[in-house]
Amino acid sequence: MQYTSGTTGFPKGVMLTHYNVVNNGKAIGDCMDLSTADKMMIQVPMFHCFGMVLAMTAAMTHGTTMCPIPAFSPKKGLDCINREQITCFHGVPTMFIAMLGHPDFPNTDFSHMRTGIMAGSPCPIKVMQEVVDKMHMRDICITYGQTEASPGCTMSKTTDSLETRVNTVGGAMFGVECRIVDPETNEELPDNVDGEFVARGYNIMKGYYNMEEATAAVIDSEGWLHTGDLARRLPDGHHSGRNHLHRGGVEQHQHHHVVGGRFGRGVTREHLHGVKAQRRGGPREAENFSRQVGGNGLLPLAAPADAGKQKADDRAQTFRKVQQAAALLRNGHKTVPKGGHAKQGESSRALLHPSKMAEDKAAPCPDRRPTAVADKIIPAQIMLSMVKTSSIFV
Question: How does DSSP assign 80-122, residue by residue?
Answer without folding.
Answer: HHHHHT--EEEE-HHHHHHHHTSTTGGG---TT--EEEE-SS-
